Amino acid sequence: MRGFPNLWIVTLDAPAAQADAIADILGEGAVSQAVMAGGDVALASVARVKLEAIFDGEPAMAGIKMRLAIFAAVAGIALPEPVLRPAPKLDWLKKVAEDFPPLQIGRWCVHGAYHRKAVPNRLLALQIDATSAFGTGGHPSTQGCLLMLHKMLKSGFRPRRVLDIGCGSGILSMACVKSARGHAVAVDLDPVCVDIAARNTRVNGVGGRIQVRRSRGYAAPVVRRGAPYDMILTNLFTKPLCQMARDVRAHLRPGGIAILAGILSYDAKRVIAAHRMQGLSLIEHRKNGDWSILAFRR
User: Fold this and answer.
1) pLDDT class for 87, splitting at 50, 70, 90?
2) Within 10 A of 42 (CB to CB), how many other CB atoms are there?
3) How far apart are alpha carbons 178 and 204 in whole angstroms?
4) 3-class SS at 282?
5) Domains of the chain with bracketed CATH
6) What single-letter DSSP state applies at residue 169?
7) DSSP single-letter state for residue 43
8) pLDDT for 200-226, tens place per residue?
9) Which residues contact residue 184 at a Cβ distance below 8 angstroms, ignoring those fewer than 6 apart?
10) What element of type H or E holds 245?
């Protein structure tokens, strides 16, 4: 299991209207990033937000500052200097075990190995341990994606062929396969995530039904060979979701469902418009805090 012995945090105060683009710049090469309004205030209601990116190793601040300066000049805005600081030294595995007890989301219980015996028998167990791969079930977009999947399954939809783009820990494809008894292809660009997701599928007893591979979006041959899919699951960010709208249509069977997440609610219209242009119909729009989760049918 890969740990983070040398974490660094970069923070920046930025205009909310440009938060998505600035986050892309600030978070390049980061293992995690977040957009925060502060307190219980909704992101859509504030003029400025705090951006935070966490890096495994000290990042090259000169390059980050240069890219931010170029963006600010082109956009005609003023940006303060990003602030770099080392992360507190913590026993991360112990902290995650303490901070994230078993979490019920729909029909699933997401837990670490530390809490394996605490899973209620009526729920489907998903063991996700503390790693560098996104997807422990704690983030609102992951939770919302699972709740949307729960609703689609509850309606009687049974996907036999599933595609998980940007799979991270593999949580979404594992949840789907455990529930619908189908098969999945799960891909991620990050080789660390690919290794972690593959291990998670074995730990959760679905290694024989989920192919985990490295791929930039839909590019890998294994993705094309598995098409058309009954369901596509993608929890990324607004920009790549819009860019891949055509791929969703090309790889989804008629009548199939795509669940898209990782979308700040003020960006939902952009993602909806991009997919409607490809002939996909929005069948559900769920909000979880500041995040939107969308379901489309081809």
Assistant:
1) confident
2) 11
3) 9
4) strand
5) 7-86 (3.30.70.120), 152-297 (3.40.50.150)
6) T
7) G
8) 999 999 999 999 999 999 999 999 999
9) 161, 162, 163, 164, 173, 176, 177, 209, 210, 211
10) helix 245-251
pTM for the predicted model, two decimal places: 0.70
Grouping H, G, I as helix, E, B as strand and the rest as coil, residue 56 is strand
Q: Of all helices (H) and strands (E), which one includes residue 223?
A: helix 221-226
The arrangement of strands across the sheet holding 7-15 comes to: 32-36, 48-56, 7-15, 83-86
* DSSP structure string for 115-134: GGGGS-TTSEEEE--SSSSS
Q: Which residues contact 37 (CB under 8 A, 6 or more apart)?
A: 16, 43, 45, 46, 49, 50, 290
Q: Closest by alpha carbon to 107, among 152, 139, 167?
A: 152
C-alpha dihedral sign at 273, 146, 130, 86: positive
Higher pLDDT, 114 or 198: 198
